[in-house]
Amino acid sequence: MTQYPSNDYSHYHAHIYFDATTLTQATALIEQAGESFPVKVGRVHQKLVGPHPNWSCQLAFEHTIYDTLIPWLEANRAQLTVLVHGLTDNEYKDHTEHLFWLGESKQLDLSVFNRNHS
């Protein structure tokens, strides 16, 4: 059984990454997640947004579904990459220290964050 990081935060984001060739697959995964779990589904961005190196869609969720949503995402993502991070008052740390990857890890553009924010 796959071990995931401990559920240490009250709220999380999962960013599903895709491109033009995987847009249909990603959209289906996002819709299924929205129908199956109490997540807030963000926009399906067909452009780069924030620190993300690929097109993406954000799922916002609470810690109460972490233990069911994360294994579900892992089992259903196929070759898609998913960035999962906790939400604190420090976006830089959320995207450097409070994160993990389902699938291939990617290089984020951290220049969008204020590193001195604490």
From TrEMBL:
Q: State the protein's name.
A: DOPA 4,5-dioxygenase family protein
What PANTHER family does UniProt report for this protein, alphabetically? AFR070WP
Listed InterPro entries:
DOPA-like_sf (IPR023389), DOPA_dioxygen (IPR014980)
Q: What is the lineage of its organism?
A: Bacteria, Pseudomonadati, Pseudomonadota, Gammaproteobacteria, Vibrionales
Q: Which top-level group of life is the source organism from?
A: Bacteria
Q: Name one Pfam family in it.
A: DOPA_dioxygen
- Which organism encodes this protein? Vibrio tritonius
